[in-house]
Write a structure and sequence with these properties.
88 residues, mainly beta, four-stranded antiparallel β-sheet, two-stranded antiparallel sheet, 0% helix
């Protein structure tokens, strides 16, 4: 991955929201690339590109980001525009 050459090319889903499109969030942790796109999150193996996990945001929630490091964190926010995002 550190040689500057493209290793994989995946199309990721997008979610439409009332004021446009959710911005996807991408992170790397250990050997997994995770993508959050509003309606859910997907995790892919770095070496093979295999889909490891797919989750759908619970009712009345949106996936609003992923963070990597020692562990993988998936941030969910209530979809109600009158409430501030919070970590679940």
């Amino acid at each position: 991955m550190d040689n500057g050459q493209m290793a994989r090319n995946h199309r990721i889903p997008v979610s439409r929201i009332s004021d446009g499109q959710d911005t996807p969030s991408v992170t790397l942790t250990h050997a997994t690339v995770a993508v959050s796109f509003g309606g859910g999150t997907e995790g892919y193996a770095v070496d093979s590109g295999e889909l490891l996990r797919r989750s759908k945001a619970p009712d009345r929630c949106r996936d609003t980001g992923v963070a990597g490091g020692r562990a993988l964190l998936d941030r969910l926010s209530r979809a109600d525009p009158g409430t501030a995002p919070h970590l679940l």
